[in-house]
Amino acid sequence: MTVHTWPQLDGIAYGGDYNPEQWSRDVWDEDVALMREAGVNFVSVGIFSWALLEPREGEFDFAWLDDLLDLLHAHEIAVDLGTPTASPPAWFYATYPDARVVTEDGTVLGFGSRGMVSHSAPEYRAAIERVAGELARRYADHPAVVLWHVHNEYGAPVSDDYSPHAVAAWRLWLQERYGSLDAVNAAWGTNFWGQRYLEWEHLVAPAVTASVINPAMKLDWARFTDEQLRACYCIERDAIRAHAAQPITTNFMAHQSYNTDLWKWAQEVDVVSDDHYLWSPDPDAHVGLALSADLTRSVARGRPWILMEHSTSAVNWQGRNIAKQPGEMHRNAFTHLGRGADGILFFQWRASRSGAEKFHSAMLPHAGTSSRVFREVTSLGQHLGALTDVRGSRVTADVAVLYDWESLWAQDLEWRPADELGFRERMRAYYERLWRDGVTVDFAHPEDDLSAYRLVVAPASYLLTAAAGENLTRYVADGGTLLVSCFAAVVDEHDAVHAGGFGAPLKTALGLTVEEFLPMRDGEGCVVELDGHELTADVWSEDLVLDGAQVRGTYRGGPVDGAPAITRNTHGDGTGWYVSSRLDVEALAPVLAAVYADAGVKPADRPEGLEIVTRHGEDSDFVVAVNHRAEAAEFPVQGTEMLSDTPVDGMFRLGAGDVAVFRTSPARGGDL
Q1: So what CATH class is 46-269?
Q2: CA nearest neighbour of 611 among 424, 431, 398
Q3: E strand or H helix at 546, and its extent?
Q4: Predicted TM-score of the model (pTM)
Q5: Where are the domains of the chain?
Q6: Could you give the CA distance from residue 348 to residue 145 in angstroms, rounded to a whole number?
Q7: N or C: which end of the chain has fewer CB within 10 A?
Q8: CA neighbours within 13 Å on the CB side: how many for 139?
């Protein structure tokens, strides 16, 4: 059996989730005709259909799905066939009540929503293996099926489970990880607060307690939960692979999901796919979108990936669900395309009339084919249809941003020195500065080979292993430029402060350690002077002990008036920069300017809000331009604008809110 690593499609995948079981059979014929009109060539089906596919345990009904797949194939629409295991049916809850999820406070979760049961329950694992295997046995050779889609958004809305099944699995996991109770006690520092364990059966889940739970225990619990979820995925994947050769995926939620370590998950899928939804309270949500797209491409290790879900307009689950403005759907789609996506898909095709998501936008909204949204959906389909040659091209970057889910888990635990200094907050601030400077970035794990990058930025590396510290120190010694933000390299993999103090693993690279953290009261702040700039800082400052580093920025006001705030250290052939306070996106501009000069990185000279990313193909480059501005923007480019098939040789004027894609010569058309 020849296993495929990418869906067998002729162009950019375009479509979305299709849930025809919500509609009468005559609507299906209307749907496929409208899909063809809109340029749809790819849909995901079956994701929430367990109750229909297996109406009683061990009793399967595939007749409706046979009909659907045949209909889609007849209309040249390829299928991403889902396993329905994210929503077990009522009979499962009734038959196996002990498989239900138990929350941190002891609440037992029942039927009537979406979300898996206990990831550790043997009955659930047996059931998902059975349904995935039966689907693969029946449809392995169906010509419509080009991709398998396991489950849906692991970790959302169910991840942590405190049921007896999970606790039993937790004890086994700890035994396999540590080998002995003595090793567990040593890793968790259980002599603190008298938490020492002498019997395995005394190890319980880190549920609700009188005060703060042992942070090392909670960090391991996050690892355990991630591995239990991933084990469920692998059970289904292997059941499918026993029969089918098509590639297999599951939809991630990069930077939006908390409980899955995507560096590890990406190793288990054939194709990386991601769901992304704009966060309405964020007026610059397109920046967060770009962050997630770059992160998805990075966990795919640069390979093309699929945007499995985003919305045509408003979603239904935020406090205030803001509709997308005209043209915003195109901008969102082309940002994903420019940052490596070879598939642009939505949730969902036809808006639901019933259920919890009836107010979620769709490709075919309640307003029908005369609506603005459907017109834009059709226009987007036409545009993507003209970009077949872009497929398979790749994005390259000279700058890497370090991203580690274990550091996220650790930094977001309780009793940190300042709640406002969060992993996601710092990650967004530094990424947004790079985005505004027009610098394309990859994300990387701190223990990755970083030698290909001129600059490595560490916005939120609270947890940094000794191995990662050695890796970053070696990177600097070999000529790299490293920029580290505050509250970094504080703890090891067990959330224990490093021997040698705060920042010890980076002492050689940065030429300093941190003597004390000095958060500021709410409403207080200070100024950091750097190269004639006065940069406003808030929330956080640190008392630095220099050991070779040179002072580049100085505190004025605050707890350490006159002390070093920003430093630069020469180590080997490279430099290590350290920023010891919380600076916002604007204040980071002169900091990054100085760091760029060290690294030989050239920020883009273009109007702010004009997003340009280049994808590199074998024979051509493809420059994707997205104008987020309220006015037109001009920039130089030579090549052919592919959406209009127009030659360009000089300045191109991109209208307010518009998008464009240029085929350029690799010799002339590198990153603009």
Answers
A1: alpha beta
A2: 431
A3: strand 542-546
A4: 0.97
A5: 1-8+272-391, 46-269, 399-599, 610-664
A6: 19
A7: N
A8: 31
Beta carbons within 10 angstroms of residue 608's beta carbon: 13
Model confidence at 667, in pLDDT bands (50, 70, 90)?
A: low
Tokens of 187: 């890793």
Tokens representing 482 are 């490293």
**Domain at 610-664, CATH class:** mainly beta
**Number of other CB atoms surrounding residue 571 within 10 Å:** 21
Asked if the domains at 46-269 and 399-599 fall in one CATH topology, the answer is no
Write the pLDDT tens digit of every residue in 420-476: 999 999 999 999 999 999 999 999 999 999 999 999 999 999 999 999 999 999 999
Binning the chain into helix, strand and coil, the percentages to the nearest 5 are 30, 20, 45
pLDDT confidence of residue 278: 96
* CATH for the stretch 399-599: 3.40.50.880
623 near 337, Cβ under 8 Å? Answer: no
What is the spatial distance between Cα 52 and Cα 50, in angstroms, rounded to a whole number? 5
Query: 13-18 and 42-45: which strand pairing?
Result: parallel
Annotated catalytic residue 420: no
Q: Is the dihedral of CA 426, 427, 432, 438 positive or negative?
A: positive
* Given the residues 134, 153, 432, 542, the one annotated as active site: 153
Q: How far is CA 253 from CA 77, 181, 275, 299, 476, in A?
A: 25, 35, 5, 12, 32
Place of tokens 């929430």: 48
Per residue in 112-132, pLDDT tens?
999 899 999 999 999 999 999
Catalytic residue, chosen from 309, 328, 376, 432, is 309
**Does residue 294 surpass a pLDDT of 70?**
yes
